[in-house]
Amino acid sequence: MREHIDNNARIGTKAVWGGEKDFRVFGATQVPVVLSVAYDYSDVDEWQEVALGNKPGYTYNRMSNPTVRAMEEKVRLLEEAEEAIAFSSGMAAISSALYTFLRPGDRVVSVKDTYGGTNKIFTEFLPQIHVETVLCNTGDHEEIEREIAKGCNVLYLESPTNPTLKITDIERLAKAAKAVGALVMVDNTFATPINQNPLKLGVDLVIHSATKFLSGHADVLGGVVCGSAALMEKVYHYREIHGANLDPWAAYLILRGMKTLKLRVRQQAQSAMEIARFLQKHPLVESVNYPGLETHPHHDIAKKQMNGFGGILSVVLKGEMETIKLLLPRLQYANRAGNLGAVETIYGPARTTSHVECTLEERRALGISEGLLRISVGIEDTEDLIADLSQALAYVESQMPLSIHNL
Ligand code: PLP
């Protein structure tokens, strides 16, 4: 089934209307949550045709489900992909995309700063199936190109990265990967389709943790992979057999959340920019990572490939964990949690969130300071968020020896 939405509709309109019409029943204005595990066929021939994929329809929820399909359609339209397939989590989407295409003896080129779970797939699980993974310094495009040229089956990128907000030039690296026949995958979770469309930059597969901005309300896990029909047929087959399906309730929550994606992302990015500028001037702050800042080492690349800089920033605080431990309990408009991309502002140190799976030495090797605090900006009023941070930082200053300010 395909969408009736006008091809020229803009992204905010697609987020509201996209993917829904074919799935409504009884004149309902919202997509139903179809919980039935299986589907009834009195005509055995028709049943077989649907089961073999020769005719559209549903047979069993591990293969497909109408609510999940509606959610997949909405993401597909936002990413301007031929096909989108949903998974039970972002990690299920990432691992399924990788395992669908990788074989023993293959070589993956990626960067050091991917999400901690992804990093574990590269360092712990892919070696078990004799897939070599080379993790390059994230901002070093020449190094990544050199490694690609040595032989590469999959180039895997994340931009901006979690939690260091580093940027890679997706178009440049996708070109290098295509030259050696590699498949290019990009985790677009931080940017969202509002701010970045990697398929337009030459990428083959775009991956999202829908747990984050797509759903937007921190109440559901999900993931999605988008790409060409030919590639996605393989990803679909992997999912139907391995079974990391998205639950229909979860699909509904993501579908509903996505309707406000553009409004949320716009507000979050505006506040993130102001908070980044505020923090840059604060004496307790060592550095601020936000691609919207002119001081960001790859601000120019971000400007070229993104429509906005997103709702996440991270800050390295003087005094490291001691400062973070004093700061976090003082914040009023804050969840101190391991999630991001929600309507509420969320603070999380790398040590307990994105890189909790890593040892201290591994985090150090990845260049992740113990004083690094990720801020996922919510949709609250910007002034309130800055006032909140300001009072909490003032409290920390009052509690710390003067020497910390001179660090
Ligand atoms: N990709 C990025 C960039 C993430 O930040 C996360 C989780 O924080 C994931 C993937 C994994 O997503 P999930 O928690 O939905 O499995």
From TrEMBL:
Highest taxon of source: Bacteria
Recorded catalytic activity of this chain's protein: L-homocysteine + H2O = 2-oxobutanoate + hydrogen sulfide + NH4(+) + H(+); L-methionine + H2O = methanethiol + 2-oxobutanoate + NH4(+)
Name of protein: homocysteine desulfhydrase
CDD domains cross-referenced by the UniProt entry: CGS_like
Keywords, in A-Z order: Pyridoxal phosphate
Entry EC no(s): 4.4.1.2
Source organism of this protein record: Paenibacillus sp. BIHB 4019
Any one annotated GO CC term: cytoplasm
Entry's Gene Ontology BP terms: transsulfuration
